[in-house]
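Human: Here is a favour to ask of a fellow structure person. Comparing notes only helps if you start from a blank page. I am asking you to supply a protein in sequence and structure-token form. Write it directly below this note and I will take it from there.

Assistant:
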Amino acid sequence: MTIQAAPIDEAKLNEFMGKAVVDAGAAMSAILVDIGDKLGLYKAMAASGPVTPAELALATGTAERYIREWLPSQAAGGYVIYDPATRRYELPPEQALALAQEDSPVFLPGLFQLIASTYRDEPKFLEAFRSGAGVGWHEHDRELFQGTERFFRPGYNANLVSSWIPALDGVEAKLLSGARVADVGCGHGASTIIMAQAYPNSTFVGSDYHPASIEAAREKARAARVSDRVRFEVAPAKAYSGTGYDLVTCFDCLHDMGDPEGAAAHVLQSLAPDGTWMLVEPYANDRVEENLNPVGRVFYGASTLICTPNSLSQEVGLALGAQASDSQLREVVLNAGFSRFRRATETPFNRVFEVRP
């Protein structure tokens, strides 16, 4: 292949090189954030105040020589602050909220854990790009499963009970009095357990095709002491058990499915006549150019490596992608037999749809 020579705008080249260097630093930082999370470095800094590398190493049982490199890398990225006068590093309270506080609505390490896992799967992605074949969810590095749950859980904690469910017509009242709920594609069960804790009069069935995720969900339900009202089953989206559900939920998973229309048809069959389907999907606008922003970049990246390959690994392989538009989702839902579809609410990271027969 011959690359044709073209006039070079030096200012544009320098601007692009600057962006690429920033991206290279961010790519290196992703694994370093994951390491900082797993070794408890951020939590130790949040608890101690300004520290030297030796003090942080001692507090976390790590090797000082590595910490002497890790801390400057974090300071260069603005994740921690360095004071040249004292030669100490500090985790500011804003960064601590995002990096050290697991129950924070802006907790980020799960995202970096997810990103780090994709690097280990690169050979699979190379082959998929060449062949057009898929890569199933179950074929990924196992760190992806935990990272995904840790990434999404803070947003569900912050929004699911406080704003998403109240945005649906009549659903909250049913859950408070006692409803039957199916949470489809539940993964490690974060969404299922949050709902069970908030609505003790209701019962919940979480389902996912991935056995390891369902086992993890069962363990988490036992730890949360909701197993008496929550049941988890291994089942694909088109074959989960039960009918007459007052509410069916799908959190950030319909676009990953090979046959989302078939899954939607099963949701319709499983709902009570006056039931509701709450469909939660990543935030997106209708046109590509409207999604060319930092959030869209993250979601397109995840879609390339995780969502689209998973769909292509299954029957039909519609591959909606994580940035599927409202109109694409509406078409899937209406083709499955539903008659009502509306965006009920949204956050900077999610759209919440109310779907009814």
Remarks:
- The beta strands are 81-83, 88-90, 180-184, 203-208, 230-234, 245-251, 271-282, 340-346, 350-356.
- The radius of gyration is 22 Å.
- The CA atoms of residues 86 and 259 lie 59 Å apart.
- The mean pLDDT is 96.
